[in-house]
Amino acid sequence: MIPYPQIDPVIFEIGPLGIRWYGLMYVLGFLAAWLLGRWRASRSPQSVLSPVEVDDLITYCIVGLLVGARMGYVLFYDFASFAQNPLEIFKLWHGGMSFHGGAIGVAAAFALFSRIKSKPLLGVTDFTVVLAPPGLFFGRLGNFINAELWGRPTDVPWAMVFPGMAAGNVPRHPSQLYEAALEGVVLFALLWWYSSRPRPRGSVTGFFLMGYGAFRFLVEFTRQPDAHLGFVAWDWLTMGQLLSAPMILLGLALVAISYVRRP
């Protein structure tokens, strides 16, 4: 068993204002996406965006991600609690962000950006999904520092006892780190490699949907289901898996269609 590193979720405080690691992880994720996006736009001959247009796109994505991720968590995971206390929706520093809701919000931002800028939608998504895994990496690190979304009880040598009564003082999978490695590092490497050569439009987006969906589906077998939801079907299927399965199917369909329609 490995000791859990006790890290204060608050980096420092200035009067009533506290700077938290969770918020910093979001800033680092957006910063990484912006820098990588400008670099790719200035060097890739197949880019549909200029470096200046990347600046605008990242702004659209920030708004879409934050609104979608929060609303997705409210609707998919804890609607009853937020219905009793609606103002809690605005307290992002308490955690509670859904990737699948964020994906819907970003998809809406892509559609709006493409329409306003007269850009091909799948060209924009193919360019941008490659920039997403670093943000996923930092986000999962934020979950780990917050000691939230921990894994199921286990006896593997790298198990950790997470603080708090809810974790039960038993060794658990550090599932946040599994997701950081798979969704952040491995998926980024695969997408960077796959998109480094010209591909049929829409295939990179499909590759991302398949990759994220598959990695998330697998990690959910080690992640503790949300206490207020439990298993949503057949005593083994979690909400995360239920939401990831359509991503895998949509990704497969996009890749197949893009190659069939390839000039």
From TrEMBL:
Its EC number is 2.5.1.145. It is a multi-pass membrane protein. The keyword Cytoplasm does not apply. It comes from Oceanidesulfovibrio indonesiensis. The lineage of its organism: Bacteria, Pseudomonadati, Thermodesulfobacteriota, Desulfovibrionia, Desulfovibrionales. The chain crosses the membrane at residues 19-36, 57-77, 97-114, 121-141, 177-195, 202-219, 239-260. HAMAP family: Lgt. Belongs to the Lgt family. It is found in: Cell membrane. This is Phosphatidylglycerol--prolipoprotein diacylglyceryl transferase. The keyword Membrane applies. One of its GO terms (cellular component) is plasma membrane. Pathway: Protein modification; lipoprotein biosynthesis (diacylglyceryl transfer). GO terms for molecular function: phosphatidylglycerol-prolipoprotein diacylglyceryl transferase activity.
